[in-house]
Please model this.
Amino acid sequence: MIKMVLFGDSITAGYTKKEITAKLTCRMSEYFPKADIINAGIPGETTEDGLKRIEAHVLKYKPE
Model:
């Protein structure tokens, strides 16, 4: 099984009606049913914020 990490801001996290949703994660699971999908999106994230957390939120999972 491959491991895939989704990383980004509210577009990645899925943010509607002031709630985080699993829409993108679910859709990716449809396209990649054998993949372990980890959504590491955080609403309001900036590039600088993402760079600060890439080790802890992405690389630690050792994605393919």
Summary: The radius of gyration is 12 Å. The chain has a mean pLDDT of 94. The first helix runs from residue 10 to 13. The longest strand covers residues 3-6.
